[in-house]
Amino acid sequence: MWERFSYYGMRAILSLYMLKALLFSIAFTSTIYGYYTGLVYLTPLIGGYVADRYWGNRKSIIIGAILMALGQFSLATSSYFYNPSLSNTVSHSYLFNNQEIFFLIGLFLLIMGNGFFKPNISSMVGSLYEKNDKKRDSAFTIFYMGINLGALLSPLVIGGIGDTGNPADFIYGFLAAGVGMILGLLVFIFSKDKYLVSPSGKKLGIFSDDRNQFNQKEIVLDQRGNLKTDINTFIDKPLTLIEKQRIGVIFILSFFVIFFWTAFEQAGVSLTFFAQQNVDRILTFCHWTIPASWFQSINPMAILIFAPLFATLWPLLNQRKLEPSIPSKMAIGLLLLSLGFLILTIPAGMIDQGFTAVSPLWLIAIYVMFTFGELCISPIGLSMVSKLSPVRFISFMMGVWFLSAAASNIMAGLLSALYPDPNTHITPHLFGFAITGFHDFFMIFVLMSAISAFILILIRKKLVKMMHGIV
What we know:
This protein has 17 helices and six strands. It is mainly alpha-helical.
C-alpha cells in the first residue's frame, strides 16, 4: 500500500510538474511520461531474474524500496531548483540545468528501484498458496485492494499539497511520496518474518531457503543415476512441452494486455490534460477548484468498492460451472475499457463543438467503467502468471508480464502526444488519418480495445487448451 502510495502519488503530479514547473510542451511531456512509465515496467524483467538466480525476493524488495525512496527525494530536490522567472517559456527538449538533472536522476532511481520491487512483491503473493488453491484469484484481488488503497490516498494527499497551482509546491508532493516509500520499507522489514511463510510454515523469499525448498520438490539425477541437489541444475533443467505451452500463454496474453494498458494509462497524461483544461472543476458553493490530479483517485476508490464483489463473483460462478476462462475474462476487460472510452467521446465531442468545460461526472463514469475492465485483467493476470509459471522462473515470468506494461506505457505516451494541444495549430496524424479534435483522439482507444477483445475471443479456446487444466 505504501509503495503504491509513493508511486501513484508521484504519477498523479508528474505530468503536471513537467508542464507547470519544468515548462515542457504537452507533446514532450507525453513522450517523457511514456518512456519513463515504460521503463518502470521493463526493469522488473531484470529484477525478477536477479531474484530468481541470486538474491531472493526479500533482498530484492528491500533494495528496490531504498532506490525508490532516493528517487522521490531526488525529484523533490529538482523541485527546489524551480525558477519562476522562466514561467513564460515552453521547452520542447532538455536544457540539462540543475532542475532537469535531478529530475532525470530521480526518474532513473525510480525505474531501477521498481524493477527490483514490483515483480518480487507480486510473485510472493502467489507463493503463499498451494499451486491449485482455488482461493488464489480472489487472494490476488484482495492484494489488489491493498495496492489501490495506496493509489486512492496518494493523489488526494500528494496532489493536495503538491498540485496547488503554485509550481513551487510540487516539492512537498515529492517529499510526501518519499516518506511513503520509507514507511513501506519499514513495514516490510519488521513484518516479513511473521507473514511471508509458505502454507507449511517455511520462510519465503530468502534465496538459500528457496533453494532448499526447490531441492525437496525436485529429484534430479546425474548421468550415473546419482541424486543431485544442486540448485543450478534444477533451475537450468529443460522445460517440458506442457511448461513451454503454459509459458506461451503468458506471452500471448501479455501481448493483448498491451492494448489494454495503452488505453488505460491515458489516466496519467491525456485524461489529466483533459481534466486540467476541459472539465469544470470549480465548486461554486465554496469557491474551491478541485485539483486535476484528484481525478486519479476515482479508479482506486472504485476498486476498493467493487473488488470484493469481483472476488466473490469468480468463486460463485466457479461453483455453478459458469466462470469464464482466463482469456475470456481478459477479453471482457478489454470490451469494458472500450465502452468507457466510447462514453468519453460524448463530452469530447461537446468540447469540439465549442463547450468550454464539461461536468466532472463524465470522468467519474468512465473511470468506474475502466475499473470494471481492470478487475477482469490485472489481478487475474497476476494470478495467472503465478499458476502457469514453472516455480523456478516465477519472478522472471512476473517480469515478462510487466514487460507488456512497459510496451503499453511507451505507446500510451506516444499516442498521448497526438492529444489536441490548444497552444499549437498543428494537426496530428495517425496512419495518415488527421486527429481533428478530442472525439477523434479518444476514438483511437475505443477501436484499439474493441478489436483486441474480439481477436482474443476468437482464440480463447486454443489458449485454454495450452494451459493444460490450469484455470
